[in-house]
Amino acid sequence: MPQLVAIDYGGKRTGIAVTDDLQMIASGLTTVATNELMIFLKDYAQLNKIEAFVVGEPKRLHGEASSIEAEIKKFLEQLSKEFPGIKIHRVDERFTSKIAFEAMIKSGISKKKRRDKSLIDKISATLILQDFLNYR
Predict the structure, then answer these.
(1) DSSP code of 35?
(2) Structural domain count of the chain
(3) CATH number where 111 lies
(4) Which domain holds residue 31?
(5) Which of 24, 75, 95, 118 could lock 31 by a disulfide, CB 3.0 to 4.6 Å apart?
(6) Beta carbons of 51 and 20 less than 8 angstroms apart
(7) Helix ranges, the chain (H)
(8) In what order do the strands lie in the sheet with 87-92?
């Protein structure tokens, strides 16, 4: 079965998570520089079969779109052109960064490693993907 790939899009860095081949478990894959994201996804798609992309939808507390949403929409247009046969799903990503940070504390990750924002992005992508799997 093809994988699902989650994307926690950010202005500088983007967290990536993937499912196992049975689409049961979400795992953090990596964090890439956002300006290299499309290259990474093309390379990844050459080695792995992808069923769908799950892209975080950042919203403010009361549900209005976040300021980065305009940039994400441009990315989504490019993504659909580069991968025309692959579905794109959106998932509300409110609080994923906060939940990711709290999970790092609870798991005993050192303060030095918790300052690594790329780790938070990767965990956030994993949370987005797991939410999608749970909903589905």
Answers:
(1) G
(2) 1
(3) 3.30.420.140
(4) 3-135
(5) 118
(6) no
(7) 37-47, 69-82, 96-106, 111-114, 117-135
(8) 26-33, 13-19, 3-8, 50-57, 87-92
